[in-house]
């Protein structure tokens, strides 16, 4: 056979039709080609394989020994090539049993994924979801496509090409609903007079509120530092402490705890939340569908 690099793969369906029909005219009709074009393709095939492939036998033609060896493998080979060139782009959420893997921090799990999981339970009942912890340094895992999606603040994902901003998150303050000293709209002095709970996943000793206070020459008292988004509101509900937290988390926690929400007495910059996915997942119809579900519930 000639060099495989120069072989025209378009000739394989012609060969399959010729060996099945054992006649040029019937193969031409099956392929919707003219008879001269089919004969020319047969000539090219004979040259490529250095074999007659079809041999005249009376009024008909019969496959050569090589052709008989090739014939059982042709259909599967053609199907495999077609699947590579034109990959299957269908995805049926109603029947899929895919296991989606999503890397997220505590905030993203509460603010985003609780609703996403509820949506998937309805629209893809046979699918499953694995939520993985999202460390600060996860580039290596993203590079090897260890998960389908990652969700966290956009700043942390800014270097990644495949990402989308989902929404902007604002900060709000919370305190227990029967706090003995805070007015309905707490002033900066009231705010600073109370102890504060700080969520610090990286064991930080300050946060965005402290940066905002520093701009006006003020400081607050940090009474509790914790890495846990969900535990902190419970602490606030049981004490006189106040806390500044992402609005979506505050609104969720206010349903379960005796909390009141109020605007920070100083402007505090919020943050964008984004999702990113490995390059290997680009164009994956299942991941495309999952991303759309996330957009739909937000």
UniProtKB/TrEMBL annotation:
Entry superkingdom: Bacteria
Keyword Protein biosynthesis: no
Keyword Transcription: yes
Pfam family, one: HTH_1
GO molecular function: DNA binding; DNA-binding transcription factor activity
InterPro entries: LysR-type_TF, LysR_HTH_N, LysR_subst-bd, WH-like_DNA-bd_sf, WH_DNA-bd_sf, YidZ_PBP2
Keywords: DNA-binding, Nodulation, Transcription, Transcription regulation
Domain called HTH lysR-type: residue spans: 7-64
Stated family: Belongs to the LysR transcriptional regulatory family.
Protein name: Transcriptional regulator
Organism: Pelagibacterium lentulum
């Amino acid at each position: 056979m000639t060099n495989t690099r120069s072989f025209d793969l378009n000739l394989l369906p012609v060969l399959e039709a010729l060996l099945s029909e054992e006649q040029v005219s019937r193969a031409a009709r099956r392929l919707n080609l003219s008879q001269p074009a089919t004969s020319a393709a047969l000539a090219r095939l004979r040259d490529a394989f250095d074999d007659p492939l079809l041999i005249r036998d009376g009024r008909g033609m019969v496959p050569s020994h090589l052709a008989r060896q090739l014939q059982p493998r042709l259909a599967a080979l053609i199907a495999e090539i077609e699947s590579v060139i034109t990959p299957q782009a269908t995805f049926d959420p109603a029947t899929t049993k895919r296991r989606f893997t999503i890397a997220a921090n505590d905030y993203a799990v509460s603010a985003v994924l609780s609703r996403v999981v509820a949506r998937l339970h309805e629209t893809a009942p046979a699918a499953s979801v694995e939520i993985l912890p999202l460390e600060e340094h996860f580039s290596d895992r993203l590079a090897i496509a260890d998960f389908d999606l990652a969700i966290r603040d956009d700043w942390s994902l800014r270097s990644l090409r495949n990402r989308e901003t989902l929404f902007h998150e604002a900060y709000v303050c919370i305190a227990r609903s029967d706090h003995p000293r805070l007015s309905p709209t707490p002033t900066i002095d009231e705010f600073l007079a109370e102890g504060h709970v700080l969520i610090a996943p990286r064991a930080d000793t300050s946060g965005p509120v402290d940066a905002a206070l520093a701009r006006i020459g003020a400081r607050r008292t940090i009474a509790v530092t914790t890495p846990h988004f969900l535990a902190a509101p419970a602490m606030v509900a049981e004490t006189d402490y106040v806390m500044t937290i992402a609005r979506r988390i505050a609104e969720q926690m206010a349903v379960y705890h005796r909390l009141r929400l109020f605007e920070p007495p100083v402007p505090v910059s919020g943050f964008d939340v984004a999702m990113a996915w490995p390059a290997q997942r680009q164009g994956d119809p299942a991941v495309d569908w999952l991303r759309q579900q996330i957009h739909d519930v937000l």
